[in-house]
Amino acid sequence: MTVIDLTSYRHNPTSTQAVAECEKLYAALQAYSACIISDDRVNPSDNDAFLNMLEKYSEQDDAVKAQDARPDLSFQCGATPAGTEVSRCSSKGVKANQKCETAINALHPSEHPLQQTGPDPKWRYMWRMGTPPPSTCSSKFAALNSGHIIPAGFPEWERTMNAWGSTLHSAVSTVAEMIGDAMMGSGKGAEKLRSITQYGPHLLAPTMVDLERHGEEGAVYAGFHQDISLLTIHGKSRFPGLYIWVDGRRVAVRVPDGMLLLQAGMQLERISAGEIRAGWHEVVCTPSTLEAVRKAKEEESSVHRVSSTLFFHVESDKWLEDLNERAGAEKKEGFERMLAGEFVAAELSDIGLSKAEAEIVP
Asked: Which run of H or E residues covers position 292?
């Protein structure tokens, strides 16, 4: 995948090199819906500390972790238990999705995602990142902008989550400004993207899977889907299994050491008027996953797979609308102007998260 270096933009966003890097980023996302990010602010030791802590959290009894779940807040803070989240592309999705069927039917059968027949077996933990909305600003979407849940027995939790989360947030904030400049012109676009994301409900959202319990080749940990965020950014996981689709091909993702993976989300698809498509992806158990499990056991390390993921969102009370001013942009029809919070709430309902009565399945 294309590697985007943030250095020139951070030092001088109007320089010839920075403008060229913005164009390179836009072209990569337009072609592949994903790219690799190089950012010298990334400290791999922060990711290691983050993964170590989340592995310990994941290894707790399910009943202990379930105490950190908040279904009344659509699981947008704290823990989301295994068996809660349902891919809309699974055969038992909460809502039938024509978009999934169309996407899968367009692929050659050899490139189809693995079939999923039930909810995801992964746990997730939602931790708010970025600047919270000012107390003087009342939002229509309180559940999407809820506070922190700190698990018992982890005194280092807040410090560790914020250390790595801030790195991911800083990187993806820079990327958003670069995309804005590519769509609207240097300076103007960055300012617009800052204005609609400054108080967004950004979430450090690691997933956790017990590979001892769910270590069968072909097991689906996160079914074929697109993210509802503006952008999703990942650090490197210790266990492979993430696949994306590039030019109709199902491709295993390998993140180079010290770099990050960026994926386009559904909110970006809307504000780019469809020129950048939200990327399809899945997380599954492969022979490479099982080999990593074998090595971890030899080293007496954890066999809980933790993803290092942050969802970057448009502010809930801002509009998702066409911001693409590029000359000759091939805009797509069918994107209704709507508040970001309305869009996210509807999507959360479709995947089984925004129901106060949602069952917690350990």
From this structure: helix 287-298
Pairing of strands 308-312, 242-246: unpaired
> Strand 220-225 vs strand 308-312: parallel, antiparallel, or unpaired?
unpaired
Question: Residue 38: beta bridge partners?
Answer: 5
Cα–Cα distance, 24 to 161 (Å, whole number): 31
Residue in the block written with tokens 């939200």:
278
Evaluated on CA atoms 147, 150, 156, 160, the torsion sign reads negative
Handedness of CA 186, 1, 348, 276 (dihedral sign): positive
CB 1 within 8 A of CB 11: no
Burial tier of 104 (Cβ tally within 10 Å: 0-12, 13-18, 19+): middle
Helix or strand run (H / E) with residue 242: strand 242-246
DSSP 76: -
Q: How far apart are CA 12 and CA 278, in angstroms?
A: 29
Which position has the token pair 């210790």?
238
Q: List, for residues 94-139, the tens digit of each pLDDT value.
A: 455 778 888 999 999 999 999 887 889 999 999 999 988 776 566 6
% helix / strand / coil in the chain, to the nearest 5? Answer: 35, 20, 45
Q: Which residue has the higher pLDDT, 43 or 347?
A: 43
Region of 351 (left: φ > 0; alpha: ψ -120 to 50; beta: rest) is alpha
As a whole number of angstroms, the distance between CA 213 and CA 226 comes to 26
Alpha-carbon distance of 266 to 228, in angstroms, equals: 5
Strand intervals (E) in 76-227: 78-80, 123-128, 203-204, 207-210, 220-225
**Could you tell me which of 282, 281, 263, 295 has the C-alpha nearest to residue 219?**
282
45-65 pLDDT, tens per residue? 999 999 999 999 999 999 999
